[in-house]
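Researcher: Next sequence.
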Amino acid sequence: MVLLLLLYSASILLVIFYLQFRWRYRYILATAKKLPSPPGWPLIGNALLRPGDIPCTTKNLFKNLIKFKRRFCFWVGPVPTFVISDPSDVRIILNSSTTLEKDDKMYKIMKILLGKGLITAKVSVWKKTRRLINPVFHPTNIENFLPVFNEVSREVVQHIGVEGEIFDSYDLSFNAALDAISRTVLSKRSVNKTIRESIHTGLQNHGELVYESIYKPWLHIKWIAMLVGDKISYTKQLYSEITEYFDKIHIAKPFWMYPWIIRLSLAMTITGGMKGTQCWLLERKL
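Model: Next structure:
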């Protein structure tokens, strides 16, 4: 009798939560119904039917983009996810102030890895901090970085110019971007090989964990994720090593020696990804 009562209560709660979800996101759900979507099942959707790995999922997305052309949606359970490819659609979304808020469910795993920072902050916090770094993106400041950008670009062209077999340009692009960031706003020199590999592995693990959290809902609960997720612990350890490396750079060259505009850029570049360095910068210098 007690078991039946518990099952009955649980069923009622699930129905209430589902109806509340449908009402709260009724406009989004109405828009999703107007768009084409791959075949799926009620409540289960279609994204969870073929989880696969990231390359496989990416190929499926491209196939659906070719099939449905400009835009479509897929369902992660009862939640719709919109996919667009037309630049005009992208421009509208990026320029809209109503699409700035992050999805709490998708960012839970990122909060476990990164803690509190600009990447995981709500819009109210992000807007205030974003105003502080607006001067960093002024053309006169960007021009100061051009010599480094040009040098890094020439190195990339030299690597590409060598005749040979077709290769994956991801590592080359990643190293070039990291060099440009490091030599302009971090230390004015390239990151050493060990830290470069740590950053590369950390970001790769980070992306895989965010992807896995879509079909592994227990990763959204911090204590369970830390208990069963060896990759999470390893990634957090990598971030700690990266933080320690940049802290040593800051000690070697006092932070006040950087121009204030570089201080802001450095703080915002590191914020979110390296929690210890973020606090060190914001508490002591900003």
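Model: Residues 28 and 96 are 16 Å apart (CA to CA). The chain has a mean pLDDT of 76.
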